[in-house]
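Tokens for chain A. Residues wanted.
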């Protein structure tokens, strides 16, 4: 079969909504870094898209392309790779491509059906379902006793749900042979801390110890009372304290933060790295530190505008955080937390420990960026001992 004919066939099936899943693998040039691409259908804003998930050695990237416009991207990728496996409704297809782009196309009939609901990650969005009353959400005023999400609480409900989804995705990184130690720093009213306990201990029946820590004594006392009233046992505790002074642990497996203000996020990340936590999930907010440090005449065109400067500072702060985590031996990604339409605080820092040493290129890249901005990041200072050999 000719290459163009193959593209027509694949693109036609995708446009017709028949894609179930596909993988493109076998890069012709390893040096490009892109190892494989997974494809799946997603529905965005009511329109069918193909999601391309690009797997590089250390990062994943995603792009959603309308299903009837996927041909160009497919063509670009298939010229660079040797094989593709695809499941469409009714058939599985195995494709091999020679150097000269001669195509071997092998199709097997199946009775697989396309997913009938393609809303983006639908299953996971509903780890906590609307209509099901969860005692902690009722008690925290997010749900009514019959499980309806209260007016004005939908954003909170979405945040908790989405965070739980990230936690679910991270379970494979956590130990299975002992109590999983989890800290929620800056837990506040502790919606997330309760959700963690509910999902991991009650639903997944895992052996966990979850701690929420916050500066506010009264709020923490309320949380303790709620936990006691709900009969939650020793696996959930609430502590009053400052993240900056919290050094009591030796073994922590997962550190989470949700909107821990400004450098409180960095204090939490610093501790997580020092403890060697396997999983870090952190949704920052109010990134002020860099805004006050920014000194980059080269970026004057942007930074002369207060609005742009503020947004730039926030994005640069999270980029610096992710890069420092990479330098400290983590696979760090910045992912969309909640759709922009619901909150501007929409970046999740997700980091899994690898223990990998950074390359010289990466170290230089970080230093150049930091110096370009005139930045003196709190997190770098927090990690100074750990990064001494790396950044000197
Ligand atoms: C915006 S609230 C978020 C609360 C909660 N995580 C949530 O999402 O509902 C930020 C919380 O971080 C706490 N916080 C800020 N700095 C802190 C620090 N250094 N140590 C402990 N808690 C801190 C505040 O007291 C506040 O409760």
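Reply:
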């Amino acid at each position: 079969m000719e290459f163009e004919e193959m593209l027509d066939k694949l693109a036609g099936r995708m446009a017709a909504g028949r894609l179930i899943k596909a993988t493109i693998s076998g890069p012709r040039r390893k040096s490009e870094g892109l190892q494989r691409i997974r494809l799946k259908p997603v529905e965005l804003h009511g329109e069918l898209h193909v999601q391309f998930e690009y797997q590089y050695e250390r990062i994943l990237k995603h792009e959603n392309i309308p299903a009837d416009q996927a041909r160009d991207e497919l063509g670009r990728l298939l010229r660079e790779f040797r094989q593709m496996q695809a499941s469409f409704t009714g058939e599985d297809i195995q494709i091999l491509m020679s150097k000269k782009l001669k195509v071997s196309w092998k199709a097997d009939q199946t009775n697989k059906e396309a997913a009938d609901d393609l809303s983006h990650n639908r299953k996971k969005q509903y780890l906590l379902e609307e209509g099901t009353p969860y005692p902690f959400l009722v008690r925290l005023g997010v749900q009514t006793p019959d499980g309806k999400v209260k007016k004005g609480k939908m954003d909170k409900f979405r945040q908790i749900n989405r965070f739980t989804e990230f936690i679910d995705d991270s379970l494979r990184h956590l130990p299975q042979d002992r109590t999983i130690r989890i800290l929620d720093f800056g837990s506040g009213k502790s919606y997330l801390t309760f959700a963690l306990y509910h999902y991991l201990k009650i639903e997944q029946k895992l052996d966990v110890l979850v701690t929420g820590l916050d500066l506010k004594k009264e709020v923490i006392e309320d949380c303790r009372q709620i936990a006691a009233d709900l009969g939650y046992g020793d696996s959930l505790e609430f502590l009053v304290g400052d993240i900056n002074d919290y050094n009591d642990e030796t073994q922590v497996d997962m550190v989470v933060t949700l909107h821990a203000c400004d450098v409180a996020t960095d204090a939490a990340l610093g501790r997580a790295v020092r403890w060697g936590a396997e999983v870090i999930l952190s949704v920052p907010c109010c990134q002020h530190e860099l805004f006050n440090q920014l000194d980059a005449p080269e970026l004057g065109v942007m930074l002369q505008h207060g609005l742009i400067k503020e947004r730039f500072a926030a994005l640069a702060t999270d980029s610096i955080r992710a890069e420092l985590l990479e330098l400290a031996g983590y696979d760090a990604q910045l992912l969309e937390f909640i759709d922009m339409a619901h909150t501007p605080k929409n970046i999740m820092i997700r980091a899994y420990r690898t223990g990998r040493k950074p390359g010289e290129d990466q170290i230089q890249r970080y230093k150049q960026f930091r110096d370009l901005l005139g930045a003196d990041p709190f997190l770098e200072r927090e990690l100074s001992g750990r990064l001494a050999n790396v950044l000197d």
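The CA atoms of residues 212 and 238 lie 5 Å apart. Residues 186-189, 191-192, 213-216, 242-244, 258-261, 264, 267 surround S-adenosylmethionine (CB under 6 Å).
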